């Protein structure tokens, strides 16, 4: 919820009890709906992102190995995905170092790495998709001249 307040510059709901008691019912319902939607999005994100990041990492490793074996240039999408991944790793390293050495209160600062993580996943999948579309595929043989098979 802190990220919501940081991005939108407004509180999710007022904190003073007097204001909460005098609010119209539709504002209370709107606040409950905002909280529910944000919780649903965050729970979906927590479920899906580890799987997508694992698959994206495999895609990036495959693209790197393909570039090395075939001796071709690394694609710009692969460079962007590697830059996003290195940004996530740098943020994680710095925050871990700060937590270990001095400040235990820093826990929410890793939220800045989430957009980089999404960028990493998207560019890794785009790179593999573009490579796949450029590959020549064998034409499908039709059985007995039937155009629908």
Automatic annotation (TrEMBL):
Q: Does the keyword Transmembrane helix apply?
A: yes
Keywords in UniProt for this one? Membrane, Transmembrane, Transmembrane helix
Record field: transmembrane:
44-65, 77-100, 112-132
This one is known as Uncharacterized protein
């Amino acid at each position: 919820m802190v990220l919501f307040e940081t991005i939108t510059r407004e509180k999710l709901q007022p904190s003073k009890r007097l204001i909460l008691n005098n609010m119209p019912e539709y504002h209370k319902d709107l606040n409950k709906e905002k909280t529910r939607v944000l919780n649903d999005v965050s729970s979906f994100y927590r479920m899906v992102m580890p799987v997508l990041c694992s698959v994206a990492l495999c895609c990036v490793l495959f693209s790197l190995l393909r570039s090395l074996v075939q001796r071709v240039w690394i694609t710009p999408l692969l460079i962007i995905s590697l830059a996003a991944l290195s940004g996530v790793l740098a943020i994680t390293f710095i925050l871990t170092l700060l937590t270990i050495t001095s400040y235990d209160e820093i826990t929410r600062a890793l939220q800045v790495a989430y957009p980089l993580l999404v960028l990493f996943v998207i560019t890794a999948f785009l790179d593999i998709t573009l490579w796949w579309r450029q590959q020549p595929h064998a034409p499908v043989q039709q059985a007995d001249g039937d155009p629908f098979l």
